[in-house]
Task: structure prediction
Amino acid sequence: QLQLQESGPGLVNPSEILSLTCTVSGGSLSSSRSYGGWIRQPPGKGLEWIGSIHYSGITYYHPPLKSRVTISLDTSKNRFSLNLTSVTAADTAVYYCATHKRFTPNFDYWGQGTLVTVSS
Amino acid sequence: QSALTQPASVSGSPGQSITISCTGTSSDVGGYDYVSWYQHHPGKVPKLIIYDVSNRPSGVSNRFSGSKSGNTASLTISGLQAEDEADYYCTSYSTSVILSTLGLFGGGTKLTVL
Result:
């Protein structure tokens, strides 16, 4: 069973880059033939898929965020990362990493989530 | 405004059944059997309870069931229990011209167990 853990700064300045890492344990994206995805939830609002990376390295992004998002994979360290550029207060949210086995929104394993606040 | 429409809230008494709807279009809910439902207790991690419209992951109670008719998917919870009180989100694969995406979420429904 996979375990996921997000890490990264809890506070980011407006216009800067939000960077988070998801470390996978109990297996790997490759061994489980999975995608690693990022989902966020702004305070008081619903869930939003940000993007996913296949264990082969192919990436998929939610169109409204595509111009600002990069997801990368570090197989040697068993982790994948999220970079979100030009952040504003609207990007303040709890960010979750999760895995899914097919190109469908079936997110089976989740990290605990990390709150990122965009503020100066 | 979310692309998938869910009621903001539903309520029911212990032991009763409730149904939460999730309405989309023929480019998402109606066009594919890739609707999932998540249970989210505030402060906790979302939990997948239904995938591919009507399938339950291992370990999920059979009190949860999913279905779809046309462009509307539904989640039914039978034999309501206090622990079912949570937010519920639907999501669907979408290939609409406006928003082609892996995961189009609904706005969420708050279930209150009276």
Observations:
- Chain A has no helices and eleven strands.
- The mean pLDDT of chain A is 95.
- The first strand of chain A starts at residue 3 and ends at 7.
